[in-house]
Design brief:
The chain has about 160 residues and is mainly α. It has helices spanning about 10-20, 25-45, 55-85, 105-115, 140-160, and strands at about 90-95, 120-125, 130-135.
Length: about 160
């Protein structure tokens, strides 16, 4: 069964997203969704790391809530910054020292940072153990790094017990 559905959770997520985004849940849409839900995990099997286990599912739900709230808040903040005078923006790079050593979890952290408007992860420097981030507006790099560590890295460490 693992050859047909190597990642059942991902297959379920793909099917669910397909049906949510479909204009109407017709039989054809369900069949296309099922085909994608089976084919995509099989075709991308080589790109996935070994089995990743979520150790604390409730912590994962809390983290999801924090990320979604931060996305909404950051959208409003970025809109205000972009619509304001451009000379008030202070873009810049900063490093977030990582306590996470698992490559998958570190990549997940970088993805979360990039999902939040106004920031984008640029590099995960495994030798230095740091996440390089670019921010649209940065006043205090140390405070921004501390916020990423407390809001995202610490919960990720709890979720994946790493």
């Amino acid at each position: 069964m693992s050859h047909v559905l190597p990642r059942p959770g991902l297959s379920l997520l793909i099917l669910g997203l397909w049906l949510v985004l479909a204009p109407a849940p017709t039989t054809g849409q369900v069949l296309i969704g099922l085909a994608l839900a089976v084919a995509l995990p099989v075709l991308t099997r080589g790109f996935w790391p070994g089995r990743v286990r979520v150790r604390r599912p409730l912590a994962a739900l809390r983290l999801l809530g924090v990320v979604l709230a931060d996305i909404v808040t950051a959208n409003l903040l970025v809109a205000r910054q972009v619509l304001g005078p451009p000379e008030r923006l202070r873009p810049g790079f900063f490093a977030v020292p990582l306590e996470i050593h698992d490559p998958f979890v570190a990549t997940l952290l970088g993805s979360i940072v990039s999902l939040t408007p106004g920031t984008v992860s640029v590099d995960i420097d495994r030798e230095r153990g740091a996440l390089q981030v670019h921010a649209l507006h940065i006043e205090d790099p140390a405070a921004a790094a501390a916020q990423i560590k407390s809001r995202y890295e610490a919960p990720l460490k709890e979720v994946f017990a790493c």
